[in-house]
Amino acid sequence: MILAALLSAPARAQPLPGAQKIRFAEMSGWWLAVPGAGARPAAIGLPRCDGVQPLNELDARERAMAELLQARGYHLLLPEPCSVNLHGAVDWLAARAEVDRARIVVLGWLHGGSTLLAALQHRLGPMPLQARAAVAFSPDCSLYGRTQGSYLPVAPLLILLDGPQERVPAAPCLELAKWTPKVMVQVLPESGHHAALFEFLERELR
């Protein structure tokens, strides 16, 4: 989604209107808070990490999803990619009064989706990731969909793939879902991803 500007680089435009540049948990990124009283759900968005997008820019897909999340009442935290400390990001959100710490979700695109799969694994890291649900768009599942019980996510996970236009092989993700009850895979045209995402989140955050 967003590559935070290097400290020595000139200031660049906000990725979305109202975004606030922040530093947290030895990272930097952007914070988009939904105005209003009361604690609201929050999403962490993990961008690709391939150097394709210019600094602080979203591609059309990521921008549309970020705008929809805000319209649905989700605060949005967009960490700097490639060196994301997801535990630190979740802890930062959970400490904020405007965030409902029981409704923190994580989304990841491509490389960000693969980072998300690794962070959700029970056996990786000193402690489980305290997220309520997760959604990965076109991740690389090849390291995980091998045998029953080899991948145990700490939260329900929806994997959304693009069908014939998919950029990564679908078979490993489908195999992963076959072995893992907490993992669901949907192969849909990109136009169907928004509805699938919010149906999943509404179910998991009830």
What does this structure look like?
This protein is of the alpha/beta class and 206 residues long. The protein has one domain (20-204): Rossmann fold, CATH 3.40.50. It contains five helices and eight strands; from the N terminus they run E-E-E-H-E-H-E-H-E-E-H-E-H. It has an eight-stranded mixed beta sheet with strand order 1-2-4-3-5-6-7-8, with helices on both faces.
Q: Brief overview, please?
A:
The chain is an alpha/beta fold. Helices cover 25% and strands 24% of the residues.
Q: Please give the domain count.
A: 1
Architecture, according to CATH? 3-Layer(aba) Sandwich
And the CATH topology?
Rossmann fold
Globally, the shape reads: globular
**What separation lies between the terminal Cα atoms?**
27 Å
**β-sheet strand percentage:** 15-25%
| CATH domain class | Alpha Beta
- Tell me the helix content: 25-40%
Spatial order of the strands in the main sheet? 1-2-4-3-5-6-7-8
Name of the CATH superfamily: Alpha/Beta hydrolase fold, catalytic domain
Stretches with pLDDT under 50, minimum 5 residues: 1-12, 51-55
The secondary structure category is alpha/beta
Q: DSSP helix count?
A: 5
Tell me how many strands there are: 8
How big is the Rg?
16 Å
Mean pLDDT over the residues: 82
Element string (H = helix, E = strand): EEEHEHEHEEHEH
Write the layout of secondary structure elements.
Layout: E1 20-24, E2 27-32, E3 40-46, H1 60-71, E4 75-79, H2 86-94, E5 99-109, H3 111-120, E6 133-137, E7 157-161, H4 171-179, E8 183-187, H5 193-204
Parallel strand pairs: 3-4, 3-5, 5-6, 6-7, 7-8
Antiparallel strand pairs: 1-2, 2-4
